[in-house]
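User: quick one, fold this
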Amino acid sequence: MSNQFTKLLSVTKYLPAGARSSILSKAFGKVVPYVGTTGIYYETVEPNQVVVSLNNNKAVQNHIGSIHAVAITLLAETATGFILGLNLPSDRILLIKSYSVNFHRPIKKGQIAAIASLSDEQRLDILNTPKGEMIIPCVIKDRESDSDRDPIVVEMTWAWIPKAELEARRQGKASEKVAEDDTENEAPIEESDASSTQNNSDDK
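Assistant:
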């Protein structure tokens, strides 16, 4: 199974770990431009596990100096989305459907990491199901804490459909919009015209 993500992994697999992570972080940041602006670092990118991390810097802080909840959610979305993308054939597209974020305790002011994993059974299900959805759990690790309890647990529900189906939906909506515009642009029948038509009919 090959797609744009697995091709990048194949090209970089013989590089030293640090260099590989840096190159993948830059490359994946271009695949999803917004994610590329946040400083997310791709530590482990494999079909069965993705680990991404985020340093606590001012751009991603909340009002108390720890990493903002939105940035944490984005980190989890990145980990779960990329692990699904690594296992999805190139003729399908993934879409986020819903998510839940449970905060069990405050995180400290250091680096955090998001870890998403898939079992072999889940990976096979993704490969063999043209259209489906899956809840992908993600654990947030607080690397400045020595607590055994994970501070945040996230569940992301991802869906995937064939690209051809998505394109057909878009074209269908575009056709409907054109039809609506044509209807709105039709010239209304003036009352005088209607009366004239009626009078002509009476004359006959």
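User: anything notable?
Assistant: Residues 4-163 form a domain with the Thiol Ester Dehydrase; Chain A fold (CATH 3.10.129.10).
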